[in-house]
């Protein structure tokens, strides 16, 4: 095992944990806050940049194998619609992707939670990679810090207003690191993002949803429904065999939502698979009475899936029917599809070796 495998990564620690670590290394208590600001507000790449932290403390960290993991921006692609896709490299040479999406006065960042994904949804490019590993909390939050730096260069004054965990991976399959990243990103000494502007999207891992409901920091929840019955969902999202629609919806009914908050359901429209008017009626029935909205996402084609995007007429008719039946529905227009940055198109060119893949338990 290399030293980095069991190293303590400063970027992954909560403020409390940072305080404990600083104390353990004989640093004064206020050093923890100073360090935290360097790491999570200024987004330093190396501890050498933390200029007001005593050299002795940094040396003590170094000796004990305390590191500061940093993502490396390997490539930035810019779409004609203003979307930017970053390919980021982890310290062990893995590639992940993160997308910045300008929309009016909002700037939403779509972040990854895993390298690859274990869930095997048939329409998704990331699924075809398999799961290589979880991202650490530090790697999750660092996506936001490198994006901040990119914006400072290219669009001075533009802040990141919203975060969606809709990049590569299944966030609730990496529960501990994702919830730790939420604590870090919402800290007022760091990125200071409101949990109301953060959305975690899941395939519908029922135990993870239950656990998230018990967390202090509960982000908005988005659930990828993608089918109107178990028959189709079993095929396009194999996880449905374990947690079928009725069980998923019952779990969501029990999810503690704040007043005026709604659950978002996502629905990828696949031509001839889940886009009929009967599907629309069944979806509306399933969601009746739920504080929710439905985000319809026309399938974004990629070479690894056999599906097609329905015509504009079919998409409109589907949405109209759902709306007529009383469900608020919005169209997620593809962003950045010219640079393969749209939903379900995130898959870097890294080829996993079969032996490296992690199976879903
Ligand atoms: N694993 C989580 C986070 C990924 S979010 C989840 O599944 O919710 C990605 C969203 O994009 C999901 O709603 C997914 O259903 C959708 N998606 C995946 N592949 C797509 C594709 N090719 N076209 C359009 N949407 C896609």
Write a brief caption for the model.
By secondary structure, this protein is an alpha/beta fold.
Helices, by number, come to: 10
- CATH architectural designation of the largest domain: Alpha-Beta Barrel
What is the CATH top level name of the largest domain?
A: Alpha Beta
Alpha-carbon distance between the two ends = 24 Å
Topology as a string of helices (H) and strands (E): EHHHEEEEEEEHEHEHEHHEHEHE
Biggest sheet layout: 10 strands, mixed
Query: What is the count of distinct domains?
Result: 2
Q: Tally of extended strands? A: 14
The CATH H-level homologous superfamily of the largest domain: Aldolase class I
Give the integer mean of the pLDDT values.
93
User: What does the overall shape look like?
Assistant: elongated
Instruction: Please give the oligomerization state of what you see.
Output: single chain
Fill in the CATH topology of the largest domain. TIM Barrel
Task: Please report which band the strand proportion falls in: under 5%, 5-15%, 15-25%, 25-35%, 35-45% or over 45%.
Answer: 15-25%
Ligands bound here? S-adenosyl-L-homocysteine
Kindly state the percentage of residues in helix: 25-40%
């Amino acid at each position: 095992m290399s030293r980095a495998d069991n190293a303590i990564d400063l970027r992954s620690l909560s403020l409390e944990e940072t305080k404990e670590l600083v104390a353990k290394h004989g640093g004064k208590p206020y050093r923890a806050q100073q360090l935290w600001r360097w790491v999570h507000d200024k987004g330093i790449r190396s501890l050498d940049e933390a200029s007001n932290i005593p050299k002795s403390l940094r040396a003590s960290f170094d000796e004990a194998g305390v590191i500061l993991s940093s993502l490396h921006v390997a490539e930035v692609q810019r779409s004609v619609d203003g979307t930017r896709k970053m390919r980021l490299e982890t310290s062990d040479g893995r590639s992940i992707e993160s997308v910045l999406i300008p929309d009016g006065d909002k700037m939403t960042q779509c972040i990854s939670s895993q390298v690859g994904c274990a869930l095997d949804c048939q329409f998704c490019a990331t699924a075809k990679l398999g799961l290589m590993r979880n991202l650490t909390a530090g790697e999750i939050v660092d996506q936001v810090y490198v994006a901040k730096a990119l914006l400072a260069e290219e669009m001075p004054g533009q802040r990141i207003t919203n975060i969606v965990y809709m990049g590569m991976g299944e966030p609730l399959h990496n529960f501990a690191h994702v919830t730790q990243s939420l604590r870090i990103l919402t800290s007022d000494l760091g990125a200071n993002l409101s949990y109301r502007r953060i959305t975690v999207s899941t395939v519908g891992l029922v135990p993870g949803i239950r656990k998230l409901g018990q967390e202090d920091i509960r982000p908005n929840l988005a659930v990828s429904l993608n089918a109107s019955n178990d028959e189709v969902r079993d095929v396009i999202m194999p996880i449905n065999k374990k947690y079928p629609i009725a069980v998923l919806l019952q779990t969501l009914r029990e999810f503690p939502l704040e007043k005026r908050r709604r659950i978002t359901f996502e629905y990828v429209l696949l031509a001839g698979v889940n886009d009929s008017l009967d599907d629309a009626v069944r979806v509306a029935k399933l969601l009746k009475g739920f504080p929710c909205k439905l985000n319809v996402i026309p399938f974004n084609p990629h070479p690894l899936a056999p599906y097609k995007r329905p015509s504009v007429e079919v998409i409109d008719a589907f949405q109209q029917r759902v709306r007529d039946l009383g469900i608020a529905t919005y169209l997620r227009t593809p962003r950045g599809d010219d640079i393969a940055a749209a939903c379900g198109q995130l898959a870097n060119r890294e080829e996993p070796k079969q032996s490296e893949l992690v199976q879903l338990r």
